[in-house]
Amino acid sequence: MRARPVLAMLATAAVLVVVTAACIAPNRAAPTGESTEVRVVAREFAFEPAAIQVQAGRPITVILENQGAVEHEFEVHGVDFHLHAGPGQTVKGSLTIATPGTYDVTCEIPGHKEAGMAGELVVD
């Protein structure tokens, strides 16, 4: 009857691998009709998810939900896109990026980027 504990350990290991992969993989936004919607949660001092992946040329709607106690921003460098949300606010905006590449995303409130509020938007 040693097979049962070994199978339980293997099943547990498989679940841990799947959960870990889901946690570290970039958030690939799922297409919803003509536009891609991406939800970003801002807290002190991080974005969740920190990595977002979208398609070039497809309109993107970014929903910034500030779950923090202070104001936060979501700025995509290299394109003209900026969102600002006070504590507890949810704001949204839309953009389209035609050129594939990796774009830095930061909170431009003084000190926030340095405290870790940075990520990337990967455009395929």
State which percent range the strand residues make up. 35-45%
CATH topology: Immunoglobulin-like
Overall tally of structural domains:
1
| Major beta sheet, strand line-up | 1-5-11-10-7-8
Radius of gyration: 18 Å
> Any idea what the shape is?
globular
CATH C-level class: Mainly Beta
What is the arithmetic mean of pLDDT?
82
Task: Summarize the amount of helix as a percent range.
Answer: 10-25%
Q: Could you name the CATH homologous superfamily?
A: Cupredoxins -  blue copper proteins
The N- and C-terminal alpha carbons lie at a distance of: 51 Å
List unreliable stretches of 5+ residues. Answer: 6-33
**H/E series, N to C?**
HEEEEEEEEEEE
Question: How many strand elements?
Answer: 11
Q: Largest sheet, described in full?
A: 6 strands, mixed
The CATH architecture comes to Sandwich
Give a concise summary.
This protein has one helix and eleven strands; from the N terminus they run αβββββββββββ. The protein has 124 residues and is α/β, with parallel strands linked by helices.
Walk me through this protein's architecture.
The chain has 1 helix and 11 strands; from the N terminus they run H-E-E-E-E-E-E-E-E-E-E-E. With 124 residues, the protein is of the alpha/beta class. The chain has one helix at 3-24; strands at 27-28, 31-32, 35-43, 46-48, 51-54, 60-66, 72-76, 81-85, 90-95, 101-106, 118-123. The chain has one domain (27-123): Sandwich (Immunoglobulin-like). The strands form 2 sheets. The protein has a 6-stranded mixed sheet, with no helix packed on it. 18% of the residues lie in helices and 44% in strands. Residues 1-29 form the signal peptide. InterPro entries: Cu-binding_ET (IPR050845), Cu_oxidase_CS (IPR033138), Cupredoxin (IPR008972), EfeO_Cupredoxin (IPR028096). This is Cupredoxin domain-containing protein. Residues 15-123 form the EfeO-type cupredoxin-like domain. Pfam families: Cupredoxin_1.
